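Section 5: illustrative case.
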């Protein structure tokens, strides 16, 4: 998750230089004994320089646009990013990989791998702090949940994990009761007797292998039961997970949901952990 207070649209202003122009400039400076491994190590070192700029900083220091940074700090970061881009292009050239083409292919692949883009309605009822919540303004691509502490951001993420992942598998009675809404006002005597989370997916392009234009995934719990549904039909947990995987929700890749703090954790991770994350996402 990311919190943003800067609503100004940012874009790259320069349209006079391409990746190919940069490649020709970078590769024009031939270095003796250069090889692919050395180019990778140069890239790794320059990315480490970027990481060092954020080490020890808080979320408040790192708001979008970096308003808390001095001009000198911003310039130092700019130089580190510039060096990393040059090294990335040099590595791509040494590997004879067309970076522009690779980016386009990866973006197209991501549309298939992260089908959360296809979701357009989320209904949360009786779950955690939500007696009822309808989210119907999701956009294709990245969706960011913003709110103050205690406003329920984490419970929305928990609701998505509740349906789309195995994080809440094999719940006991007490675990189910803890997930059911306890947010009752003083004059309400009735307790929540059930909770459910329902996600609607656009399936016009048959992203899921089912002959329906709308796919509705639902999980419902009571004190004594835990049920799963696909378009209103009762399904077993394993059947639902297999159906989700058929649409791109891999059990081995949970990065279609990015929790608060994960970005900073990755930025300060050691190289082995970063490689493990990249392998999981690829």
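Designed sequence:
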């Amino acid at each position: 998750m990311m919190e943003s207070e800067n609503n100004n649209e940012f874009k790259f202003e320069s349209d006079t230089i391409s990746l190919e122009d940069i490649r020709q400039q970078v590769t024009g400076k031939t270095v003796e004994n250069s090889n692919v491994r050395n180019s990778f190590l140069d890239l790794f070192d320059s990315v480490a320089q970027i990481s060092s700029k954020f080490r020890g900083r808080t979320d408040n220091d790192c708001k979008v646009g970096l308003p808390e940074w001095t001009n000198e700090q911003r310039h130092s970061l700019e130089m580190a990013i510039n060096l990393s881009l040059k090294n990335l292009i040099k590595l791509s050239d040494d590997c004879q990989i067309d970076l522009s083409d690779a980016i386009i292919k990866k973006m197209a692949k991501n549309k298939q791998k992260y089908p959360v883009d296809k979701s357009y309605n989320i209904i949360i009822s009786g779950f955690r702090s939500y007696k009822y919540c309808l989210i119907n303004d999701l956009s294709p691509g990245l969706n960011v949940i913003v709110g103050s502490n205690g406003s329920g951001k984490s419970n929305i993420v928990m609701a998505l994990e509740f349906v789309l992942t195995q994080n809440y598998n094999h719940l006991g009675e007490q675990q189910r009761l803890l997930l059911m809404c306890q947010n009752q006002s003083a004059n309400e005597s009735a307790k929540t007797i059930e909770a459910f989370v329902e996600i609607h997916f656009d399936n016009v392009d048959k992203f899921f292998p089912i002959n329906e234009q709308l796919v509705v995934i639902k999980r419902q719990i009571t004190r004594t039961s835990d049920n799963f549904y696909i378009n209103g039909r009762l399904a077993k947990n394993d059947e639902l997970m297999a159906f989700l995987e058929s649409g791109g929700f891999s059990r081995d890749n949970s990065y279609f949901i990015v929790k608060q703090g994960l970005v900073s954790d990755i930025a300060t991770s050691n190289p082995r952990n970063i490689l493990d994350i990249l392998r999981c996402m690829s």
